[in-house]
Fold:
Amino acid sequence: MRLNDTLSGWLMLILGLTIVACALTFPPMPGQNIGPALFPQIIGGGLAFCGVALVRSGRRAGGPAWVEMDDWVGRPRMVFNFALVVGALVFYALAVDTLGFFITGFVFLAGLFFSFGVRRRWIAPVAAAVTLALHFGFYTLLRVPLPWGWLERFAW
Structure:
């Protein structure tokens, strides 16, 4: 799918302005000129600037329709894979607190690997290794608490 540059620009401009507006609500840091709102405002301003540039570029070029569909949209298997990725993300969001990160991450990856044609003998080991690596990266290195779910009694 391809969006016209004008439409992409308007979406980026709206996103950038929304980020800036939300950042303006952040409380200031006492005794400092630089607070928690500075970097989101810079990012939002940059997105808004790029959005304006895309709108100008799209208007100059004229361009085709607002939205063009790619060839994969006509192939049922590709549409199924797209829907599966979206469904897997929804599954993760709904199940991770109950099942825990290890189980949800493993099922998430194994299901996608199976659907995308990964050799069956590699699905379980790679899904387990990636899940463990992600857990190590987030839980240990970044100190992001991940839910244990059903494995709470085994938590370290």
